[in-house]
Design a protein that fits this description.
Helices cover 53% and strands 5% of the residues. By secondary structure, it is mainly alpha-helical. Among the domains are: 13-143, Zinc Finger, Delta Prime, domain 3 (Up-down Bundle), CATH 1.20.272.10; 202-280, GMP Synthetase, Chain A, domain 3 (2-Layer Sandwich), CATH 3.30.300. A three-stranded mixed sheet has the order 1-2-3. Helix 2 runs parallel beside helix 5 and helix 2 packs across helix 7. The chain is elongated.
Length: 336
């Protein structure tokens, strides 16, 4: 009747909310870590058909990986909220697994959580994540694999794939056939050894601080060239030894980079040290000062003033030197 109380069962509520039973999470986790790909996919699809969301299943697997790892490290740790049978089963799983395999599963699951949230088909993304987990579970630990590679030993697979085709029977060896080959009259000459690569020429060594900036430009080290021109002030310059002062906004690692580049470019050892002396103005400041002086000199020219008076508002933007080629000697000069 209407007054009768209805009993609420846990399974319909779990299906409605898309949750998975902890026992089934343990089932799926154990299948994955055993490398049983087909069974793991089947178990996930069964949970998915009952209403479990793919993201929720992977989140439960991630939490389960964390709990199993804690049991691996501290077997006597308590598991509040777990039934005794579930805790005993989790402890048995932890004994069989290694810490490297658990941490590897953790990394794969973290990546899979992002993929499931952005994939057009979350269930398909979860399938692929479970496949990666099952095949990664059969891999040896990274240190053992690296040691095998270093020693030149190939890692032996645990078992042949279940769906691998049977090996083909070996074909009988081919019958020997007589072959004729022409014997060369003269043995081939061995190829000449390659000449050693030339070392950097000593002529690349800059003779001045401005030459250092120019060399950096020629070697396409544009960031270093900018630091030389705007952030370093020359204190002293000798071949192989440079002393500089840095501007307040300079990168202090630039001095070491400069020494390393100069040594590589020139084939000679260079030392670049940082001094507390103020040093000269930066190359950029010197260039700006020289440009201002050239503009001031040009502005004092009477002819230029006369031209600028005709064009009110005209400004001197740049001053450039014009190189005029020498005129060829005239015929009269050649005759004399």
């Amino acid at each position: 009747g209407e007054g009768e109380a209805r009993r609420i069962q846990a399974e319909p509520v779990r299906q409605m909310l898309g949750l998975a039973d902890r026992t089934r999470v343990l089932d799926l986790f154990e299948l994955v870590m055993k490398g049983a790909a087909a069974e793991a996919i089947s178990e996930f699809r069964a949970q998915y058909d009952l209403g479990a969301e793919p993201l929720t299943v992977l989140q439960d697997l991630t939490a389960m990986t964390h709990e199993i790892t804690k049991l691996k490290i501290a077997p006597s740790s308590s598991m509040p909220g777990w039934a005794s049978a579930e805790a005993a089963r989790a402890g048995a799983i932890a004994e069989r697994l290694s810490v490297p395999s658990l941490t590897r599963a953790w990394q794969i699951l973290l990546k899979a959580l992002q993929e499931v949230q952005t994939a057009p088909d979350p269930a398909a993304a979860a399938d692929m994540a479970l496949l990666r987990l099952t095949y990664a579970a059969e891999l040896p630990p990274a240190d053992r694999l690296a040691r095998a590679v270093i020693d030149g030993a190939a890692a032996e697979p645990k078992s042949a794939p279940r769906d691998a085709p049977p090996p083909r029977p070996e074909s009988p060896p081919p019958r020997p056939r007589a072959q004729l080959s022409a014997v060369p009259a003269v043995a081939r000459e061995a190829p000449a050894p390659r000449p050693p690569e030339p070392k950097p020429a000593a002529s690349l060594s800059p003779a001045s601080w401005a030459g250092v900036a120019a060399l950096a430009g020629e070697m396409k080290a544009l960031k270093l060239k900018f630091q030389i021109e705007t952030q370093m002030r020359l204190v002293s310059f000798q071949r192989g030894a440079i002393e500089i002062a840095l501007t307040p906004n300079a990168d202090r690692g630039g001095a070491g980079d400069l020494a390393e580049r100069l040594t590589s470019w020139t084939g000679e050892r260079w030392i670049v040290s940082i001094s507390n002396d103020p040093g000269e103005p930066t190359l950029a400041a010197q260039a700006a000062e020289a440009d201002a002086a050239r503009k001031a000199q040009a502005a004092a020219d009477p002819l230029l003033n006369a031209v600028m008076s005709v064009f009110p508002g005209a400004k001197i933007i740049a001053v450039r030197d014009i190189v005029v080629d020498a005129a060829p000697p005239s015929e009269s000069e050649n005759d004399t």
